[in-house]
Amino acid sequence: MVQNTIIFDINRQKSLVPVEKKIVMFLKTIKEGAKRSEGVFHKIAHGLVGNVFHNEGYDPCINLRDTRAVGIRIVKLNKSFGSNRVLKDVNLEIRPGETFSIIGPSGTGKSVLLKLLVKLDEPDSGEIFIDDFPVFGADVKNSERDYRYSMVFQSSALFNSLSVGENVGLWLREKRVCKETRIREIIREKLAMVGLQGTENLKTSELSGGMKKRVAIARSLAMNPDLILYDEPTAELDPINSDDLANTIIKVKETTRNTTVIVTHDLNFALYVSDRIGMLHEGHIIETGTPAEIKSSTNSIVRGFIYTTTKGIKG
Q1: Cβ neighbours around 78 below 10 Å, total
Q2: What is the DSSP string of 221-261?
Q3: How far apart are CA 72 and CA 118, in angstroms?
Q4: CA–CA separation, 146 and 76 (whole Å)
Q5: What is the per-residue pLDDT for 180?
Q6: Under a CB-based contact definition with an 8 Å cutoff, are residues 261 and 114 in contact?
Q7: Phi and psi for 304 in degrees, rounded to 5?
Q8: How far apart are CA 43 and CA 132, in angstroms?
Q9: pLDDT on residue 160
Q10: Burial state string for 192-209 with b = 16 or more CB within 10 A and e = fewer than 16
Q11: pLDDT band at 286, cuts 50/70/90?
Q12: What tens digit of pLDDT does each residue of 51-89 get?
């Protein structure tokens, strides 16, 4: 009786008995608190309070120190949106532990390919294998994925209502993978890796665009992913911040064993950070190679993309 009243009569307090009134007022207080970043409900919703079901002796079920590089194999991948065929029989192999950049003009399906890698969308046909594990195949339900992956979005996708430290530790707290003292240590470690020591208590509104990108990277690193993906990491950054971000990614790679996949139209960035590069054009991967091999390509489309005055590179 009370439950039905709460659900359907939350805004009609005059018709409620005193006990029901108190329950309704309590719910309204929680709703108002959720609108404020300091509200208890807000903290609970984001997993930012201690786990009341486990004591300090709680053992995590995920070993965050056990990381490895994964290999990726893409076979005849197709994706269309209506009549627009974005990806056309894409075939690509990314080796374990390498930094691989997918370059190409805007609107060629680079970000779509990245979303398929993390199952944010589904292909029309074809398959992606990560360490020979089929991401979309019929056997997926009967298989156990034994790798972790994270993604750094183009917009950084930080929660404005959370501090820097709360953003970085969000996944750890939501999954209850370790004790709070260890979570705080991980937050400090990952922020130090991206050059943001001592920023845990800053609000995201106090950060520059480049700092937000680095916080997003630190958040992705908090789970020690085997595979980390970057979607247009230099978008909206000036050349200096782009350079700083490139050095951050290289430094992170030197201290981790993961596989890194970057989608970008920023050629200079890709040439600087990548072990190998693949160019996507009109839905196809038309060439792959090391930065030196891509720069010396005889493919007219690749050369047309690379050798332009505005990129600072002349043929």
Answers
A1: 15
A2: HTT--SEEEEESTTTT--HHHHHHHHHHHHHHHHH---EEE
A3: 12
A4: 24
A5: 87
A6: yes
A7: -65, -35
A8: 39
A9: 85
A10: ebbebeebbeeebeebee
A11: very high
A12: 333 334 444 445 555 677 899 999 999 999 999 999 999
Output the CA torsion sign for 246, 252, 255, 257.
negative
How many other CB atoms sit within 10 Å of the CB of residue 126? 18
pLDDT confidence bin for 271, thresholds 50/70/90 = very high
99-106+147-311 has which CATH code? 3.40.50.300
pLDDT at residue 277, as a whole number: 97
Radius of gyration of the chain (CA): 23
What's the confidence (pLDDT) of residue 210?
86
Q: Which two tokens mark 228?
A: 């980390």
41 or 155, higher pLDDT: 155
Tokens of 168: 């970085």
Contact status, residue 170 vs residue 54, Cβ threshold 8 Å = no
pLDDT tens for each residue of 97-112? 999 999 988 888 899 9
**Structure-token pair, residue 133:** 């594990």
Residue type, 132: D
Q: Is the pLDDT of residue 48 over 60?
A: no
Phi (first) and psi of residue 74, to 5 degrees: -110, 125
Rounded to whole angstroms, how far apart are CA atoms 153 and 26? Answer: 37
Q: Which helix (H) or strand (E) holds 84?
A: strand 84-94
- CA dist 229 and 261 (Å) reads 5
Q: Would you mind telling me the total number of residues written for the chain in this entry?
A: 315
Domain boundaries, the chain: 99-106+147-311
Q: Is 200 helix (H, G, I), strand (E, B) or coil?
A: coil
Q: What is the pLDDT of residue 238?
A: 87
Alpha helical stretches, state H, the chain: 2-8, 18-34, 40-45, 110-117, 164-168, 170-175, 180-193, 209-221, 239-255, 267-273, 291-295, 300-306
